[in-house]
Amino acid sequence: MAPAYDPAGKTAVFLVSGVNGLGLHTLFTALRTFRHVFRNFVFIEVGLIDTSVFKSEADIAELEQRIQTDLERYVRYMNRQGFFAQGLPLIGTEITREVTRVAEGLGRQYPGAIFFGGQIVFPNETVFSGWLHNYTVFAIQKRLYYQGIPVFVLPIRLDG
Fold first, then answer.
1. CATH code of the domain containing 85
2. What is the distance between the alpha carbons of residues 107 and 94, in angstroms, rounded to a whole number?
C-alpha cells in the first residue's frame, strides 16, 4: 500500500521529461541537497503535441500511455522509499503554458510546494550545446516566479 499524503510534510514537485538521466539526476540531487525536508513528491511530465506526434488519435494515445508509464515509475520508486508520490500527466502544444496552468492549483492542493527542474550544463559551453539543449525550465521558473511559486533549477553536469 502506498504511503498517504502527509499534510504536515513539505512537498517537492519535479518537472520531468521521462525516466532519463536528467529527471533522475534532478530527483537524486534534490534528495541529497534537501535531505529529510520533503515527505510528499509530485512528478509532472508534459507530452508535447507537435507535427511529429499529431498524426492520429492512436499516436496521441501512445504518447499519453508513455507519459503515464514514466510517471508510474517515479511514483513507485518514491513509494518504495516510504514517501507519498503522485504523477501528473499533461498533454499540450507548449510545455511552459501547461506547467503554468496547473501550478497554482498544485500550490493550493499542496501548500508551500517547491518546484524543481534540471538543466544540463557542460564544462565548455558552445553555440551548438545551446541549440541542442533548450532552456524551457528557465521560462517556467520565470512564469512561476510571478505567481509566487518557488522553482529551483538544479544544474546537471555532463562531462565529456
1. 3.40.50.620
2. 21
3-state SS record for the chain: CCCCCCCCCEEEEEEECCCCHHHHHHHHHHHHHCCCCEEEEEEEEEEECCCCCCCCHHHHHHHHHHHHHHHHHHHHHHHHCCCEEEEEEEEECCHHHHHHHHHHHHHHHCCCCEEEEEEEECCCCCHHHHHHCCCHHHHHHHHHHCCCCCEEEEEEECCC
pLDDT tens, residue by residue, 117-141: 999 887 766 655 555 557 899 999 9
Please report whether residue 88 resides in a domain. yes
Structural domains in the chain (count): 1
pLDDT at 50: 79
Using CA atoms, how far residue 132 sits from 37, 41, 45, 121, 135, in Å, is: 34, 29, 20, 12, 10
> Does residue 151 surpass a pLDDT of 60?
yes
**Cβ pair 151, 145 in contact under 8 A:** yes
The residue segments making up the domain with residue 44 are 10-157
Residue 78 lies in a domain: yes
